[in-house]
Amino acid sequence: MKASIEREDFSERLQQALRNADYSPDSPTQLAREFNVRFSGRPITVHAARKWLVGEAIPTQEKLRTLAQWLGVPAEWLRFGSNSTEGGTVGDAGGVPVRFESADVKLIADLQRLDDHYRMIAREIIRMLVRLSRSKE
């Protein structure tokens, strides 16, 4: 009974992480395709991806790490859940590094796809916004 609840909870967190990263939580085909592009081991099947999404299975630790890295969430949160890492963001003034939300990871990937000229412009805009934000504090 406990194992089925763990699988269902994992499924909910996986679906949330997919939505946050602008992927459909309803497409095992897309999940398998996107996962396999990033995973160096044996590819998963659409059937395996469906089992993850509907709470029938939990991936191995190696696959969990790949999912977490791709979706920009902590692997521990994806597997076990935790209030302290809700939604994949962690950080405080005590020097703990901030973990990016899935949307931030997607934005960084988009930035990397730009040519050098547009990437430089985007960086300058971000630096300007940070300076403006700091001056208002």
Structure description:
The chain has 137 residues and is an all-alpha fold. It folds into 2 domains: 2-88, Orthogonal Bundle (434 Repressor (Amino-terminal Domain)); 102-136, no CATH class. Helix content is 65%, strand content 0%. It has helices at residues 2-20, 28-38, 46-54, 61-71, 75-80, 102-113, 116-136. Helix 2 (28-38) packs across helix 3 (46-54). The chain starts with a helix and ends with a helix. Mean pLDDT is 83; it is low at 84-98.
Q: What general form does the structure show?
A: elongated
From the 3D structure, determine the CATH topology of the largest domain.
434 Repressor (Amino-terminal Domain)
SSE run:
HHHHHHH
Low-confidence runs of at least 5 consecutive residues: 84-98
| N-to-C CA distance | 51 Å
Largest sheet: none
What's the number of structural domains? 2
CATH structural class of the largest domain: Mainly Alpha
Topology diagram in text:
Elements: H1 2-20, H2 28-38, H3 46-54, H4 61-71, H5 75-80, H6 102-113, H7 116-136
